[in-house]
Amino acid sequence: MPEIQRPDFSLEELAQGLYVFFGPTNIGVAAQKASDGKTEVYFIDSGENPEFSKKALEKCESLFGDFRLKAVICTHAHADHIGGNAWLKKNTGCEIWMTEAEKSCGETPEIQAQMFYGAFPLPELDIPYFHAPKAYVDKCVAGGQKINCGQIEFEFISLPGHSLGMIGVLAAGPDGKKAFFAGDGIFGRSMLKRYWTPFIVDVKSFKESIARVAKISAAFVFRSEEHTSE
Length: 230
Fold this sequence. Notes:
This protein is of the alpha/beta class. 27% of the residues lie in helices and 29% in strands. It contains seven helices and 14 strands. The strands form two sheets. A seven-stranded mixed β-sheet has the order 1-14-13-12-11-10-9. The chain has a seven-stranded mixed β-sheet with strand order 2-3-4-5-6-7-8. The chain starts with a strand and ends with a strand.
């Protein structure tokens, strides 16, 4: 599949109820009308910082009008994917969903910077890009699990390797079309040009996860930055 790049801070509709907010770290968006007339929104990851999450909320408001953010579903607990969790939870009351294996890092973000360095990090690594604000997890999800949220269905695919408990999120809208948000389960060409050796904690598991991603059937497949479409 070809790589397709979009300008940062744009919200693009993929299929009925499914969107993506493009930026340094893409945010998946699933939306549906609730019985009270409001639009219920789910984010898949929250981006690298609160400012980016705010932009995503502003785009949702311009598109949906009156809406509420129900939950942030986190692919994994690296700071560039959960940097907006704490701000969103505080300002919208949304839930945070994450796997059990990633929960400890999401709730104790100091672990991530120490993991990257192998010890207590140097000041150069103790920065927001590696150290997200703490946000407590409301629901633990697991690979192989499916959750129906009204007209939206989420299926979680286990993708360990880049991190211990990473998942991909396969979201299906009301019309049955699907978008797969792989987190850092695969890396695109532009990412590999910048980081020739990507961060991997378990090479064997990472290879197995890539094979798992290759079998996913979806109209759209998203990485953390670029995306492809059939």
